[in-house]
Amino acid sequence: MASLLEVPLLEVRAITKEYRGAAAVQDISMSLQTGEVHALLGENGAGKSTLTKMIAGVVAPTRGEILLDGKPVSFASPAEALRHGIAMVFQETSLVPSLTVAQNLFLGDEKAFNRLRPLTIAAQQFLQSLNFPVDPTLNVSSLGAAQRQMVEIARAVRKNARIIIFDEPTATLTPEEKQHFFELIGRLKARGCSIIFISHALEEALQISDRITVLRDGKLVVTDATAAFDRDKVIRAMVGRSLTDELYGAHGGSRKTRGYGKRVLSVQNISMGRMVRNSSFAVYAGQITGIFGLIGSGRTESAKIVAGVVKRNFFHGGVTRLADRIVRYRVPAPAVKQGIVYVTEDRKSEGIFETMSIAQSIYTGLLASAQHRATLVSKTEMRSVAEHWTKSLSIRAISSDAPVVELSGGNQQKVVIAKALVQQPKLVIFDEPTRGVDVGAIAEIHAIINRLADEGMAVVVISSYLPEILNLSDRILVSRKGRIVEEFAADEATEEKIMYAAVH
Amino acid sequence: MIAGLAQRLLGMRPAATVPSMDGALRPNRALDEAATLAECAAPDNLVWQDDHLLFTSGKRVLLLDSLHLEGEPEQILHFDGEITALAAAEDGSLAVGLGPSGIVMVGGAHDGRTITALGGRKLIAPTALGFSDPDTLFVCLGSDLHPAADWQRDLLERRATGSVWRVPLDGGAPACLAVQLAWPNGLLLHDGRIAVSEAWRHRLLDFPSRQRGAPRVLLDDLPGYPGRLSPAPDGGAWLSVFAPRTQLVEFVLREDRYRHWMMQTIEPAHWIAPSLRAGLSYKEPMQGGAVKTLGIFKPWAPSRSYGLAVRLDRDFIPTASLHSRADGRRHGVTSCLESKGELIVACKGDDVLVSAELAQEREI
Predict the structure, then answer these.
(1) Do B248 and B302 form a contact (C-beta atoms < 8 A)?
(2) DSSP assignment of B254-307, as one string?
(3) Which 3 state secondary structure label does DSSP give A124?
(4) Is residue A397 within 8 Å of A390, Cβ to Cβ?
(5) How does the average pLDDT of chain A come out, rounded?
(6) Which of A2, A21, B199, B352 is most buried, most CB within 10 Å of its CB?
(7) pLDDT score for B261
(8) What does DSSP assign to residue B315?
(9) Sorting pLDDT into bands at 50, 70 and 90, what band is A474?
(10) Which residues in chain B are closer than 8 Å to A324, comparing Cβ atoms?
(11) From the CA of A479, how many Å to the nearest CA of chain B?
């Protein structure tokens, strides 16, 4: 880490951003040294993204100033910030889906005449240098979330930015990919590149950063060297109280696992292309079945087949039994009507309608279910349903008429969950239920999931975060190469055993 | 035939699949690790009588010292035919199923009585017996066509000619409680109802025990063929699963022409069918990589035989299980009985009677 006495590479002084008079970021000052990895932590809505967007020229500050190499600067656009060496890798990728990976990497640097082959070769070499296993000839639309993230990171690195801002870069990466990413951070740091790193995974921040800044409600709470922090101290600074026990403290033998209820779902030898191969498992009422697997292991796809989001193979596609009858869904609607709901891992594109209010979003769930039989839409019913669920799941919003898109990640996730639960399902599948959600909301979502299982519902939780799987699940299934390969009881499972089964 | 062809061409025929053994049925080696109580030919039909453990072995009824459950079993009865079912009443009397010879009462008020037909049906295969009181016997008839020993043929012919009867021994007409069952071979009386295992449909049913009534499915789509039921001391039951289901057998069961050709041309021991013990002869089907590597059974192989005893709670939901996997030596579990924290298991396929300690931690 560079000496703190040097002139900071980047400094923000008393910076404020207001939207319609309400301050999203208020009077924040921080600095970034050359070659420093600076973690920016805080709950959803703490102002992290707004602060970094001001640095990257995406939004203009209302007050305060930004100094680069000790000189005041202001950026009218991200392109201008990039010209000054500041790049931002967004949480929602900004790639062009219809172009190939190589074309996306070189987007904006095209010559008058371009040949694909040299472009692809250059992209291939560059991706290999970063240890990213992405085929440069593939269209971005065909990539999974993790691979898109890799392309996004590669693009920022390729721009030779002096300051790279990563907003939740590891949320979609597997543990192995994360390790590659951390190595990449080390290489960038060695090159003199400075990094601002936003993450909800506190262990990562503690592992790779030199300094940590914690924001809460748009204000700076603390900035200090990483060595001065531990997990509990970070959480206390973020939320004002310790949540460690609430989140992952129960694992270790004290938690009583739930027994087996009736078999609700039996998946027998289902197959779908190369992603799901002859996979079999069962799900029981009144308990949480955790499914762990690396990205590409087929866990999400298996869940989507069950919920009718994707179709199994037409021939030799296997059998899915719901309770005592064989079901086969080509679209989600009949699955919803028969009591299966899937809470997506990608809430932005699959979980919410950005143009709708909270009440409308939740009500759409009811309209799709077998519970709703009326032909006409009732606004009174919509409001009462929304009120019930916002109260029940503690969704924090000014009113149920507020647009979902304005909510924090945790509250958006609760809206997605409410939209699912309003359908009174028998089986709920949560796919990465706490991805991109702050620690306070994680505890609340975990409590909701536990409550559902306690009430006798069959619950499936798919997660790539092992402490979450270990803490929530009554039994743990491990997916690898498109099939369930191992099952652990909660009391015998360890991170090592699960990871071994997932990899070998 | 046209519908079948259309289903095949359009991919609408459900795949020949088998449910996974997971959850409470997650494989373990509990039966292989269990202590041996006795080694004798084809042990079966475990019952308690006056604090003694009785079981059958071929044509004999044997007794084992209840205090130690060890030593050589003592023969107490011998019959001319193979014993297919056994039940003990509270007054010490026994009902013994002898296949086509019928059911013989031994001891008690009905000593010597023989039942050879029920409701005009000749007894071919009495597969399970049970008393509600010394004067009322319940009988499972596995089939009207095949004797109990010929159960594989009954399965491969896809028969459903089994029935369950309530027989008043002190006079009165026997009452038929259920018909057209696919090899019922286990029964348990509970709460005024009778639970019956229907092997070829892989399920447990129950219906009223006094008169004919609508059956209720208690447990469906089991990964094996359910056999005898025995009560568990603190409620619920133990279920013996005498053979596993495999995708190959499920497939063969759908291929009528092939199946009939196989039954006509190949000796029964080598049919592609479930078995109480398989894998010991090189002539058997599935000797390739699917079940063996370098001549050694894979524990997870889809073998034709298996050892499985399942603990069911009061609602007949599986809560725990004891296994002898494909490479194990305790296959063909036809009967099990819980006593004083131990489960006594008759492994008919491997000719051994074992006792497994039921530790709390076994409750998976």
Answers:
(1) yes
(2) H-HHHHHHHHHHS-GGGSSS--SS-SS-TTSS--STTTEETTEE-TT---S--E
(3) helix
(4) yes
(5) 85
(6) B199
(7) 96
(8) T
(9) very high
(10) 217, 220-221
(11) 14
Nearest CA in chain B to A315: B11
* Residues of chain B neighbouring A284 (CB-CB closer than 8 A): 23
What is the rounded CA–CA span in Å between residue A179 and residue A182?
5
Closest CA relative to residue A27, chosen from A295, A286, A255, A217 = A217
SS3 B248: helix
Residue B62, strand partner residues: B55, B75
Q: Of A60, A68, A72, A73, whose CA–CA distance to A25 is shortest? A: A60
**Which tens digits make up the pLDDT trace of B141-174?**
999 999 999 999 999 999 999 999 999 998 889 9
Distance of residue A447 Cα from the nearest chain B Cα, in angstroms? 23
Distance CA B133, CA A158 (A): 85
What ipTM does this complex have?
Answer: 0.88
A326 contacts chain B (CB < 8 A): yes
Cβ distance B20 to A314 less than 8 Å, yes or no, reads: no
Inter-chain CB pairs, A–B, below 8 Å: 61
Does the CB of A277 have a partner CB in chain B at under 8 Å? no
- How far is A134 from chain B, CA to nearest CA, in Å? 35
CA distance A453 to B107: 52
Nearest by CB to residue A319, choosing from B15, B315, B364, is B15
The single residue listed with the structure tokens 């011998």 is B78
A316, A324, A475 member nearest B23 (Cβ): A475
Q: H helices of A313-402, where?
A: 332-337, 358-368, 379-392
Contacts of A501 in chain B (CB under 8 A): none
Write out the two tokens for A335.
Answer: 């699955």
Identify the pLDDT of residue B44: 96
pLDDT of A436: 74
| Dihedral over Cα of A367, A371, A373, A378: its sign | negative
- Report the C-alpha gap between B354 and B347 in whole angstroms: 8
Closest partner CB to A260 (pick from B14, B15, B319): B319
- Tokens (6 digits) for A445: 């979502």
Chain B residues near any Cβ of chain A (below 8 Å) = 11, 14-15, 17-20, 22-24, 26, 217, 220-221, 247, 315, 317-319, 363-364
Distances (CA, A) of B136 to A28, A66, A157, B118, B210: 86, 93, 84, 14, 10
What are the beta bridge partners of residue A25? Answer: A17
Contact B114, B103 (CB under 8 A): yes
pLDDT in tens, A38-64: 999 887 667 888 899 899 998 889 999
**pLDDT of A380 above 50:** yes
Q: What is the mean pLDDT of residues A280-305?
A: 91
As a whole number, mean pLDDT of residues A156-173 equals 80
Q: Which fold has domain B27-277+302-363?
A: Neuraminidase (2.120.10)
What is the pTM (predicted TM-score) of this model?
0.77
A213 three-class SS: strand
